[in-house]
Amino acid sequence: MSLIGSQVVPFKAEAFKDGEFITVTEESLKGQWSIFCFYPADFTFVCPTELEDLQNNYETLKELGVEVYSVSTDTHFTHKGWHDSSEKIGKIKYAMIGDPSQRITRGFDVLNEEDGLADRGTFIIDPDGVIQAVEINAGGIGRDADILVSKIKAAQYVRNNPGEVCPAKWQEGSETLKPSLDLVGKL
């Protein structure tokens, strides 16, 4: 079942963010764009490269009104330990949510039940708490935050411009489409 267009399932979790522990709920997402970036586990191999890449784009995302949340089934204490011991993870300023109960991971349908770990899932959530985009990769395939920034810009454009859609490889400022009978069979 697709999660596109659905509300984020209610949750409450502890997170490590910028040197302190915080509580995050689905209500924390309201009024802003959010990215949820699920990854298998702390102290692994592909994950720190992705999370560092996300941090490298964090200021750009913040300028776009987007908050970032990484999530794994580790605890928020483990996130702090990883943050304190890894050069790549030590750069992270966004919230690292601990989900040892696996409730959030299940709610986003990215729990690998056999391993008890999250799949590599990325979700773009609008200011109303509605999921607008989903990407799920196999464990060995890392994600690219530059592509994520482009997807955010497209999602924001479509939200702010009803009746217009963004074609493949759309970049901010380029031409969009207005679906109509006149376009049928001409693209």
Low-confidence stretches: none
User: Helicity level, as a percent range?
Assistant: 25-40%
Give the strand tally.
9
From the spread of the alpha carbons, the general shape counts as globular
- Main pleated-sheet profile: 7 strands, mixed
Strand content: 15-25%
- What class, by secondary structure content? alpha+beta
The mean pLDDT is 95
What topology, given as strand order, has the largest sheet? 2-1-5-4-3-8-9
| Spatial gap, N to C terminus | 29 Å
Question: Any key phrases for this structure?
Answer:
187 residues; alpha+beta
What is shown here, in short?
This protein is α+β, with helices and mostly antiparallel strands and 187 residues long. The chain contains five helices and nine strands; from the N terminus they run E-E-E-H-H-E-H-E-H-E-E-E-E-H.
What is the strand and helix layout of this fold?
Blueprint: E1 12-17, E2 20-25, E3 33-38, H1 46-56, H2 58-63, E4 66-72, H3 76-85, E5 95-98, H4 103-107, E6 111-112, E7 117-118, E8 120-125, E9 131-137, H5 145-160
Parallel strand pairs: 3-4, 4-5
Antiparallel strand pairs: 1-2, 1-5, 3-8, 6-7, 8-9
What do these coordinates show?
This protein has helices spanning 46-56, 58-63, 76-85, 103-107, 145-160; strands spanning 12-17, 20-25, 33-38, 66-72, 95-98, 111-112, 117-118, 120-125, 131-137. It has 187 residues and is of the alpha+beta class. A hairpin with a 5-residue loop joins strand 8 and strand 9 (131-137). The protein has 5 helices and 9 strands, in the order βββααβαβαββββα.
